[in-house]
Design the sequence.
């Protein structure tokens, strides 16, 4: 694990960022306080409706069943499930046991799942028999001692009597191995302790507007932030859980109307797919009062569109490694909310290198990676994390992300910001979503390629159209796209981020 200077440890503990609570403690306290709160899964495959009390009973019966099979505090419990009740029961059960939780995004294929299971060697693996592209193959988990398959034998793991209480574990110990969404390479296993994960949970919860209401969670709970947002924060706040196992804009809009559930933000794709849908009406704005944006680059054109509809937009910046680096509250000045990624969160520090790379540290920063070599490369002896993102600070201390080091396009030795190009592409009529990536160039090494998804019925722009648009926008000629490709959709991670590396691979 990374080096955490003793002075930082003392500061985080004395200022209350790190407590003696485990994730199991936090869950048990919240569930006891609001046992009759509703828990609903809106699914064509596995719908479920009940209360926190009923889900907790399943979780505690599962915890008792696993403990009877030899699972102890510190053992690893992995699960690859859609947004179903059993995902909550598995997460809660593992937390009560003091086990290390490994959520796996349900759209990961066998290659990625095998890589994760071989990396962490779990004692338990819970998955689904079939859902979309997810199909259970016994050989995949052949080395795992305890396997439960929802739709086949999951219930066999449940003991007759539920486990009481919460296992005692060191809050400094690992609580979570969160594998990244794989936007650039094979998934990386990020290690969070009970303290760092607990701090992040409180940070996120503090950003929720008081009148937000019960949210629909469509982001996969197999993703770290999806799990925290969907299965932990509502328990702490005593608000209803509404899970959706597929991102279907028509279904989301219908659930807003029939269940009064809100969509409070996420990656830009989630919000734009709703407001662009033919079923979207002014009535839906009652359930879209706020849009907390993050998890992917947030174009100004998106924040401006949402604001014009009367939605209060605010942005945040972080990663699986350091989830809440900066952010704005919904009460911040409009220009800061729309065009910057906010100020540093309580307890967090950032600085910029000579190249403009953001380095950060704070009480919600992970312990490191499951791969020691990755840990050594990303963290220094003073506890700073090298994010790989490029940004700048304004006079008021608000950070704006200007690019990702790996997304820079180097044309003839000149660095071109992909985000800058994408902003102009998104202002072109008919363009719903855009990615600017590097394409090979025999003379210059690389040049800009534009990959765009259009609104339904929109006229496809030509390269000449792009050139005229970029000239009007005033962008330097060397930054103009030199090829254009149309797609019906982008390759995405489970949380909706565009996988730039796959876009580049497809171009090649």
Sequence:
């Amino acid at each position: 694990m990374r080096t955490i200077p003793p002075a930082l440890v003392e500061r985080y503990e004395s200022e209350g960022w790190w407590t003696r609570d485990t994730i199991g403690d936090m869950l048990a306290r919240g569930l006891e306080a609001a046992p009759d709160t509703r828990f609903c899964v809106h699914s064509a495959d596995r719908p479920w409706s009940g209360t926190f009390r009923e889900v907790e009973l399943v979780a505690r019966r599962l915890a008792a069943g696993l403990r009877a099979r030899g699972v102890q505090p510190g053992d690893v419990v992995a699960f690859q499930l859609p947004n179903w009740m059993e995902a909550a029961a598995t997460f809660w059960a593992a937390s009560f046991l003091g086990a290390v939780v490994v959520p796996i995004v349900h759209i990961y294929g066998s290659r990625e799942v095998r890589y994760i299971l071989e990396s962490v060697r779990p004692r338990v693996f819970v998955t689904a028999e079939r859902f979309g592209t997810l199909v259970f193959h016994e050989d995949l988990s052949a080395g795992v001692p305890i396997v439960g398959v929802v739709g086949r034998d999951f219930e066999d793991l449940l003991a007759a009597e539920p486990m009481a209480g919460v296992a005692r574990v060191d809050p400094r110990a690992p609580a979570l191995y969160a594998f990244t969404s794989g936007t650039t390479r094979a998934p990386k296993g990020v290690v969070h302790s009970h303290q760092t994960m607990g701090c992040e949970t409180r940070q996120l919860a503090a950003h929720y507007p008081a009148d937000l209401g019960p949210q629909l969670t469509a982001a996969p709970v197999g993703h770290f932030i999806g799990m925290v947002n969907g299965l932990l924060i509502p328990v702490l706040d005593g608000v209803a859980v509404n899970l959706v196992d597929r991102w279907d804009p028509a279904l989301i809009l219908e659930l807003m109307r029939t269940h009064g559930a809100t969509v409070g933000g996420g990656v830009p794709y989630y919000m734009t797919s709703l407001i662009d849908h033919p079923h979207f009406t002014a009535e839906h704005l009652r359930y879209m009062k706020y849009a907390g944006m993050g998890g992917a680059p947030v174009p100004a054109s998106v924040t401006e569109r949402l604001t014009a509809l009367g939605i209060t937009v605010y942005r945040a910046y972080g990663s699986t490694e350091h989830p809440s680096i900066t952010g704005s509250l919904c009460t911040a000045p409009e220009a800061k909310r729309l065009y910057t990624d906010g100020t540093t969160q309580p307890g967090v520090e950032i600085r910029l290198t000579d190249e403009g790379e953001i380095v950060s540290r704070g009480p919600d920063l992970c312990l490191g990676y499951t791969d020691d070599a990755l840990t050594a490369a990303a963290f220094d002896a003073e506890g700073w994390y090298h994010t790989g993102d490029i940004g700048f600070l304004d006079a008021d201390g608000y950070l704006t992300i200007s690019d990702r080091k790996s997304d820079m396009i180097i044309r003839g030795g000149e660095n071109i910001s992909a985000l800058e190009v994408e902003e102009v592409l998104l202002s072109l009529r008919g363009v719903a979503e855009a990615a600017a990536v590097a394409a090979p160039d025999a003379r210059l090494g690389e040049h800009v390629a534009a990959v765009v998804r259009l609104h339904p019925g929109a006229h496809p722009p030509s390269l000449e159209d792009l050139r005229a648009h970029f000239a009007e926008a005033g962008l330097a000629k060397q930054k103009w796209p030199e090829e254009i490709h149309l797609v019906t959709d982008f390759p995405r991670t489970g949380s909706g981020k565009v996988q730039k590396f796959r876009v580049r691979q497809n171009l090649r």
Remarks:
- The chain has three domains: 18-194, 247-405, 409-507.
